[in-house]
Design goal:
By secondary structure, the protein is of the alpha/beta class. The protein is built from nine helices and 15 strands.
Length: 340
């Protein structure tokens, strides 16, 4: 065999190896794609959209989306579609909007999809007939480090309680709310002046990645479920729905607690007090601990740059506010039109 013939033979041999390797890789990708779980996604608000988007970007098949029915909103009371529905429609994903999750027609329709897995992000409490339907179960993304802050408002409540750390948890749904076996968790720090809205936006992005990691772990069998078992003597902090009574400021409390209340309720629904017989919402503030001479709840201003209220142990300086019937604005802008 000549040198050229030998080189040609070697080249053909290496080419066959590369083709075979590429064929093997393509086959692995094919098998991986076709072994991905078929998913039903359930969610309503903006917080859920990044999770749905991440699932699609990572190649998972979302058979349908279940979201809240359209509701009248705004001055014209026009029907408003949920953020999840709007996204699903842009991606041509079928949308189900059952008024009642126990509706027999909805149950039959859901079964017809024959999904392997259901994923819930910021949605209603599911009946057992729904969450127990898929063979891989139903997983939920929750905005706290469970078992702490079970309930409807974990982000708000964590800030209102002055926490410096919170997190995200994915878990398997069970009969009682937020009590299922834990799959994955991720800790997230809370800034000293961070609002609920700012933390919400950070957590929805981190939550999307955690959802994808959870699906991958369930798919390849590397995740082990862990029951929620709080350590002995650890006090569990609940996260119930925010009510109107949670929003009115009590100026007889310490200024640190008032500051946490303001940022924990910003931007929605907003902490409020009354100023010149009108409701005043406060979205941003700063605290100053000092010996205050004025009575709790009294206000002072220089008429140009600052407006402050007296708390138990100092002052709350208002930075961003909204007077009843007015737009949201910085305090400096408000004081330009204010007359003592």
């Amino acid at each position: 065999m000549t040198v050229d013939s030998w080189r040609w033979t070697e080249f053909r041999f290496k080419l066959k190896i590369k083709v075979r390797q590429r064929s093997t890789v393509n086959r692995q990708l094919y098998l991986q794609m076709h072994s991905n779980p078929q998913i039903i996604f359930m969610g309503t608000p903006d917080f859920a959209v990044p999770s749905l988007d991440a699932l699609l970007k990572y190649g998972y098949s979302v058979l349908a989306v279940v979201t809240a029915p359209d509701k009248p909103a705004g001055r014209g009371m026009k029907l408003s579609e949920s953020a999840v529905k709007q996204y699903a429609q842009r991606k041509d994903i079928p949308v189900l909007q059952p008024p009642k999750l126990k509706d027999p027609e909805f149950i039959v329709r859901l079964k017809q999809f024959q999904a392997d897995l259901q994923i819930v992000v910021a949605f209603r409490m599911l009946p057992e007939e729904v969450w127990s339907m898929p063979p891989m179960g139903t997983i939920n993304l929750h905005g706290s480090l469970l078992p702490q802050y079970r309930g409807a408002a974990p982000i708000n409540r964590a800030i209102m309680n002055g926490e410096t750390e919170t997190g995200l948890t994915t878990f398997k749904l069970q009969q009682y709310i937020d009590t299922g076996n834990i799959l994955l968790m991720e800790k997230i720090p809370i800034g000293p002046n961070e609002t609920a809205g700012e933390l919400h936006d950070r957590m929805k992005q981190a939550g999307a990645q955690l959802v994808v990691q959870t699906v991958k772990g369930l798919q390849d069998g590397t995740l082990q479920e862990k029951p929620q078992s709080p350590e002995h003597g650890i006090f569990l902090k609940p996260a119930p729905k925010i009510l109107a009574a949670d929003c009115e400021i009590d100026w007889t409390r310490p200024v640190a607690q008032i500051h946490n209340q303001i940022r924990g309720l910003s931007p929605y629904p907003g902490a409020f007090t009354f100023f010149r017989d009108k409701m005043l919402k406060i979205f941003r503030s700063r605290e100053e601990k000092t010996s205050a001479t004025a009575a709790a709840g009294e206000f002072e201003t220089d008429g140009r740059f600052w407006l402050r209220f007296t708390g138990l142990d100092g002052y709350i300086y208002l930075e961003e506010i909204q007077m009843e019937g007015k737009k949201r604005m910085a305090v400096k802008d408000f004081l330009r039109g204010y007359r003592p």
